[in-house]
Amino acid sequence: MTEPWITTYSGKQFYPAICSPDDISIKDIAHSLSNTCRYSGHCEPFYSVAEHCVRLSRLAPEHLKIYALLHDAPEALTGFGDVCSMMKHEAFYTLNALEDIILHKIYVKFDIPFISNSDKLELKKIEDFLVAAEVRDLMPEECMRFMSLQEPRQTTRIIPWPSKYSEMIYIEEYHRDMELIKRQNKSIRYD
Q1: Which end of the chain is more exposed for a tag (fewer CB within 10 A), N or C?
Q2: In-domain check, residue 7
Q3: Would you tell me the crossing angle of helices 49-59 and 163-183 to the nearest 10 degrees?
Q4: Strand partners, 74
Q5: What is the DSSP string of 117-147?
Q6: Beta bridge partners of 13
């Protein structure tokens, strides 16, 4: 049996379980996430994972911006897309492990220091506020009874961007966030 693989936007044969950091491209990630709908496709209208990541990066403090932008990047490279977190935690332990492996390889590819557990927790708290706004603005009202959410911090309504715009903004945000790390005296490699 051969190792499972996907074909990326740039035409690479990508093997998620045995990938090398050299196989990873920010353009493949941005393209895939901009065409992947949040909430396993159950929101209205279409709202991309790329847009979610950009919005989270913009809410995060400087030292967490790149981690916010890339936190869902493995979803672009597993072949499974956006699987809701409840399913990942309860039923798909292997997918969770695979996403963790890919995320570490993304950090290696772009020379990003690994995120600390305390920073992960801080980022999760920020994401919880964004998720509350997303659910308020993008999910049917009936969904609210299943979710225990914080009150959204942002009062402006989320109006989703077109996919191509999300892709472009994701790449711009990546370069901006990488510049922040560069200014913090980290060695950065761009692809």
Answers
A1: N
A2: no
A3: 40
A4: none
A5: HHHHHHHHHHHHHHHHHHHHHHS-GGGGGG-
A6: 7
Q: Number of helices and strands (H, E) in the chain?
A: 7, 2
Task: Assign 13 to helix, strand or coil.
Answer: strand
State pTM to two decimals: 0.91
Written as tens digits, the pLDDT of the chain (191 aa) is 488 999 999 999 999 999 999 999 999 999 999 999 999 898 989 999 999 999 999 999 999 999 999 999 999 999 888 877 766 666 566 888 899 999 999 999 999 999 999 999 999 999 999 998 998 899 987 776 666 666 666 678 999 999 999 999 999 999 999 999 888 754 445 55
Structure tokens at 80: 């499974």
Q: What is the CATH number of the domain that holds 40?
A: 1.10.3210.10
Q: Which domain holds residue 160?
A: 23-183
Residue 8 lies in a domain: no
Instruction: Please tell me the total count of domains within the chain.
Output: 1
Residue 13 belongs to a domain: no
